[in-house]
Design goal:
The protein has about 575 residues and is α+β, with helices and mostly antiparallel strands. It has eight helices and 37 strands.
Length: about 575
């Protein structure tokens, strides 16, 4: 005779819990495939399944599972108290990693054990449930989730392992970092922006275009670019600006947010300018997001928490600094300030996100004083960008409000194309000609692209109309490039080519590069595509069809940073390492 299960186990009503798990699994795995990517349903379905599932299981346990007495309440406390402890003492601002992944894991372990107990008629139900819940939290404590990938799946490491940042800082300490150059040592050494340099984010025009560079090899699989140097680097999601044989970037180094100058030829560090600040969130991880801008021997940087600085580009010494959250009323976005400074005449123009029509602000290049603040931007990750429409020089800012245009001199809003999006926008407008601009969004309910026609009327005012709109491309946080009447870039995580005359899709390469970034080598009709896992690919910039000409592993780890090329070299970085490759040898 088969031994019947213990009475207490047989009394438990398990089927509602199994239904809850099935519903949560459908929300997490099926809903993102069935609905528009990056839509509210996409996000809320996944988050709802991972967070709502465990919460509903708790409700099931306390109400209809038929657990009685202490056995009804103690498992719930053993589930909730460790979760709260992980949030309070370990994960902090990244609490959602506990709610999304820790609670889901432990709740699933708990339920699986109940099912096993029922199927095999095991004894000692109560004590085993207590131990299984605690063991689940203990197992979760053995790993660490510092960040996630683009799909918000965790990147898991052992809890006792060092982070890449810790390894970098330890190596740097052993190598005795160079001292900051003194004013006397740098006397007469002014960093100049030379022809072919990249003095700002994505180049002078923020368009990701490189002229005069043709790779020696077209087959990057058989004959990849030669590695010149590679080394560890502090976390950060901006890229390099290049001037006068020097690379400038921003990194997190322990408690300090740093602007760093490297020698472009050797990759060695020349100076560090450190500011006490650290931004961290559980998706990207730690580190600043912006890219420094170089002009007239000075370097301008915007930190993740709002520190706007002007440094001497030769030495890294501070000329002035201002906190834009204090001085302009700016509000740090959920994923931090990510824009790069725009220099327009005697002004440094950045996104500040201040409410009350002060979302974009201009500061004096001489002393950092606030000169004007204007616009409706309250949530954005784009950089201010210069354009010339109707013979009028103007500053563009893309944000949650839409696309705004300002007069650089006084911040007067010249025109506004309203395209509200409460989620976020993180890409740059693409200037197509003297009267056209392409804007795109890949998050929220109204995804797609719009080509705008900007016309200056006889009275000097501007009229903005939609020339065409299309579902593709849907730019998430990946900037595209414009070449010979076509757009090349990412539609969510698929590399595409779009005809700019009518907005028609020419080809779709699919999601083979993840959420990568694109650089245009215009004279060669080639794209450098850097995948979100650090592979560099050479792709033909031709509308007839997608053609990859080879690829090679350039970096390790998550790579969201833009590639940069200058003087025959390709410069790459992510949150773990930086590298230089020679494209002409």
């Amino acid at each position: 005779m088969t031994e019947s299960p213990p009475p207490e186990a047989s009394r438990l009503r398990l089927w509602p819990a199994l239904v809850i798990v099935a519903m949560a699994a459908f929300a997490v795995f099926a809903v993102p495939l069935l609905v528009e990517s990056r839509s509210p349903v996409h996000f809320y379905g996944k988050a709802g399944g991972l967070v709502g599932g465990p919460m509903l299981l708790l409700v099931w346990w306390l109400t209809v599972a038929r657990a009685t007495g202490l056995f009804r309440w103690l498992p719930a406390f053993l589930f909730a108290i460790p979760a709260a402890a992980f949030i309070a003492f370990i994960y902090g601002k990244a609490a959602f990693n506990v709610l999304l992944f820790g609670c889901s894991f432990v709740a699933l372990v708990w339920l699986v054990w109940l099912v096993i107990h029922r199927l095999f008629g095991l004894g000692g139900l109560r004590i085993s449930v207590y131990l299984v819940i605690l063991a689940g939290w203990a197992a979760f404590g053995l790993v660490r989730i510092d960040q996630t990938d683009s799909e918000v799946w965790p990147e898991i490491r052992w809890a006792w392992s060092k982070t890449e940042e810790e390894r970098f800082l330890a190596e740097r300490a052993e190598n005795n970092p160079p001292p900051v150059p003194t004013a006397a040592e740098a006397n007469g050494n002014v960093v100049k922006v030379l022809p072919g340099d990249v003095p700002s984010f994505r180049g002078v025009n923020l368009d990701g275009r490189v002229v005069g560079l043709k790779p020696k090899s077209d087959d990057w699989s058989a004959s990849p670019p030669k590695l010149v140097w590679k080394h560890r680097i502090g976390p950060g999601w901006g890229t390099f600006s290049i001037a006068d044989g020097k690379l400038f970037t921003q990194e997190q180094r322990g408690p300090n947010e740093c602007v760093i100058c490297y020698d472009a030829t050797a990759g060695t560090e020349l100076w560090e300018a450190a500011e006490p600040a650290r931004f961290y969130e559980g998706i990207a991880g730690a580190g600043p997001r912006g890219t420094p801008t170089i002009q007239d021997g000075k370097l301008y940087s915007q930190g993740a928490t709002g520190m706007l600085q002007c440094l001497d580009a030769a030495t890294g010494r501070v000329k002035w600094k201002t906190n834009i959250t204090a001085d302009s009323g700016g509000v740090v976005p959920p994923w931090s300030y990510a824009g790069s400074p725009l220099i327009a005449d005697d002004k440094v123009i950045v996104y500040t996100g201040a409410p009350g029509g002060k979302g974009t602000s201009a500061f004096s290049v001489y002393d950092g004083k606030l000169l004007w603040a204007a616009g409706d931007a309250t949530h954005g990750y784009s950089s201010a960008q210069l354009a010339d429409f109707g013979g009028v020089r103007q500053v563009l800012m893309l944000s949650d409000a839409g696309l705004e245009s300002f007069a650089p001199a006084d911040g007067k809003r010249l025109w506004f194309f309203e395209w509200a999006n409460k989620f976020n926008r993180a890409t740059q407008p693409a200037i197509l000609d003297e009267s056209s601009v392409l804007i795109s969004t890949g998050v929220g309910p109204d995804q797609g692209s719009k080509r705008l026609k900007v016309t200056r009327k006889a009275d000097g005012t501007f009229e903005v109309k939609v020339a065409w709109e299309a579902r593709r491309p849907r730019a998430y946080f990946n900037d595209g490039v414009v070449h010979k009447g076509h757009f090349y870039g990412f539609d969510d995580k698929s590399l595409v080519c779009v005809d700019l005359a009518e907005g028609k899709l020419k080809w779709n390469a699919g999601a083979i590069y993840g959420h990568g970034q694109v650089l245009l080598l215009s004279d060669a009709d080639r794209l450098v595509v850097l995948s979100d896992r650090g592979q560099a690919a050479l792709v033909a910039a031709e509308p007839e069809g997608y053609s990859e000409l080879g690829k090679f592993p350039a970096l390790k780890g998550k790579t969201w940073n833009h590639p940069v090329a200058a003087h025959g070299k390709l410069y790459l970085r992510n949150g773990e390492e930086a590298a230089c490759y020679d494209l002409e040898k």
